Amino acid sequence: MNVESQEHKDLRAAVAALGQRHGRGYDREQLWAEAAKLGYLGVNLPEEYGGGGGGMAELSIVLEELGAAGCPLLMMVVSPAICGTVIARFGTEEQKRTWLPGLADGSLTMAFGITEPDAGSNSHRITTTAHRAEDGWSLTGRKVFISGVDIADATLIVGRTEDARTGSLKPCLFIVPRDADGFQRSQIDMELQAHEKQFELVLDDVTLPHDALVGEEDAGLLQLFAGLNPERIMTAAFAIGMGRYALATALAYAKDRQVWKAPIGAHQAIAHPLAASHIELELARLMMQKAAALYDAGDDAGAGEAANMAKYAAGEACVKAVDQSVHTLGGNGLTREYGLASLVTASRVARIAPVSREMILNYVSHQSLGLPKSY
Ligand SMILES: Cc1cc2nc3c(=O)[nH]c(=O)nc-3n(C[C@H](O)[C@H](O)[C@H](O)COP(=O)(O)OP(=O)(O)OC[C@H]3O[C@@H](n4cnc5c(N)ncnc54)[C@H](O)[C@@H]3O)c2cc1C
Predict the structure, then answer these.
(1) CATH of residue 181
(2) Are residues 66 and 154 in the same domain?
(3) Residue 52 Cα, ligand 1 centroid: separation in angstroms?
(4) Is residue 270 situated within a structural domain?
(5) What are phi and psi of 131, to 5 degrees?
(6) In degrees rounded to 5, what are phi and psi of residue 212?
(7) Is the pLDDT of residue 54 over 80?
(8) 81 Cβ inside 6 Å of ligand 1
(9) Domain holding 274: CATH number?
(10) Shared-domain flag, residues 85 and 176
(11) Closest Cα to atom 4, ligand 1: which residue?
(12) Over residues 334-350, mean pLDDT
């Protein structure tokens, strides 16, 4: 029996070859354009709008393999996966025609903003609010840590609107163009070495047309979750790719480096943790494949649990693989030449974003195990 179809294996091999051609010193724009041209960026988007007609199974293979070659495209987590999915599933016909072909062919990119300074992990507490204006909407609020806003044509902002009947606030998604009046961004000084930067955003009475609202005003939560499961699956792919890249670097080194009679990889203190990391990355991939299969089959509820578990497992496996890989290289683990030290910081992203390890443990405690909540 094959866990992965021949088609998926072929996709993996083709993307891996593309990744090898670009490698660690990759030019993000060039790789983005080439991956798009080959149909990889929009592989999950509907064919009628220029996509490949596949799903998260295929898109996660693309990101994992690019990461494993040392050239991950972080914006794949948000542009085709979250934004593309939400627009394809809930957008109006006009929104689909405006955005999907461009997201698929790489000529358009969309960022995604939910995190707020005073809400953090508690996204129920977000306060970015949309008021009805004469010709559409007026959006006001703040966001933080939003990736790639400078290179994205627009950002899909999670805000709230007031329910006309109850007065309570309900989540809604708005497409905010990069250069909209009142939409300001300032780059956050991160320790990360990555092409994609993080931004703090201020939305000061940003005027948006009616059709900036994605889909139905009353289906906000459903729409939001439709995007968050792909985000978790893709973060798992990102983490597994990075873990594999670090591990491959360490393995090559451990087979070659000799300071006693045999290469250092012969010492079990070096070999066993690397073997354990390989196992943990494989296990995380299995859960990612399960999450993608459930999501692609339309089982949003089942995919929710699996996507959380996959993101957790992949984040942990990635952090451990990178840590052990750096250690395997001894002093060289900290040189720029070998390029592993910067992954120590990068690997931690997978533990924190888009939902932290603790929030996933909370989710599993409450949703899967039925334990009571402390908060
Ligand atoms: C590189 C990077 C890129 C990002 N890109 C984006 C993006 O594109 N778009 C976007 O919207 N966001 C983005 N984020 C934000 C990210 O999703 C948040 O950082 C994350 O959700 C955690 O929120 P916080 O940083 O406010 O941490 P906090 O919520 O302040 O949490 C701090 C710590 O407290 C723990 N904690 C909080 N509540 C609980 C609890 N109830 N039980 C146990 N522990 C708890 C957390 O697990 C964490 O360890 C990005 C972050 C990073 C680092």
Answers:
(1) 2.40.110.10
(2) no
(3) 32
(4) yes
(5) -110, 145
(6) -75, -20
(7) yes
(8) no
(9) 1.20.140.10
(10) no
(11) 145
(12) 97
Contact 375 CB / ligand 1 (< 6 Å): yes
- Structure tokens of 118? 């005073």
End position of a domain, from candidates 188, 219, 250: 219
Ligand 1 mean position, distance from CA 235 (Å): 14
**195 shares a domain with 157:** yes
Residue 359 Cβ contacting ligand 1 at under 6 Å: yes
Average pLDDT over residues 283-310: 96
Report the SS3 class of residue 161.
strand
Which residue has its alpha carbon closest to ligand 1 atom 19? 353
Bridge partners for 200 per DSSP: 186
147 lines ligand 1 (CB under 6 A): yes
Q: Domain end: 219, 253, 286, which one?
A: 219
Centroid of ligand 1 to alpha carbon of 226 (angstroms): 20
Tell me: do 115 and 105 sit in the same domain: no
What separation in Å is there between the alpha carbon of 243 and the centre of ligand 1? 21
Q: What's the token pair of residue 317?
A: 């496996």
Whether residue 375 lies inside any domain: the answer is no
Single pTM value for the model? 0.97
Report the C-alpha gap between 168 and 134 in whole angstroms: 21
**In sequence order, what DSSP letters do the residues of 209-275 get, joined into one string?**
EGGGB-S-GGGHHHHHHHHHHHHHHHHHHHHHHHHHHHHHHHHHHHHH-BSSSSBGGGSHHHHHHHH
Q: Which residues pair with 156 in a beta bridge?
A: 112, 175
- Residue 315 Cβ inside 6 Å of ligand 1? The answer reads no
357: domain range?
Answer: 221-368
pLDDT in tens, 18-39: 999 999 999 999 999 999 999 9
In a domain, 146, yes or no: yes
In a shared domain, residues 77 and 44: yes
Residues 128-161 have pLDDT tens digits of 999 999 899 999 999 999 999 999 999 999 999 8
